Amino acid sequence: MRVSELKRDMDERFTRVDARFVELKTDMDERFTQVDARFVELETDMDRRFVEVQTQIAAEGEATRRYFDVVAEQFRSEVRLLYDKLAAIDETTASNRQEHATFQRALDDHEVRLNVLERPGQ
Predict the structure, then answer these.
(1) What residues contact residue 1 under an 8 Å CB cut-off, 6+ apart?
(2) What does the pLDDT look like over 88-106, one tens digit per residue?
């Protein structure tokens, strides 16, 4: 093989390689365009989902707040009831103490009268 033939053969091979690179570049550009389009779709879908999740979180926050308000009001009612019961017990205890003191004085007076009546020689 002569140098001129070798040069022609090498030029033909480089031309085929260049053509193949052009095909590959075109194919790669097309694929990257598809990938870019898919990323745009995914980004749009993610944005939509993010908004949905934010909406759900806000709705759950409102529901939780309402539930908490109901529970807090029930707790307040229970505390008021407990306070009322304790106040009633305190009033009853104070009243019982007064009655007990009155009853004790009456018993003491009665005991004194009995002792006076039972003394010998009177």
Answers:
(1) 9
(2) 888 888 888 888 888 788 7
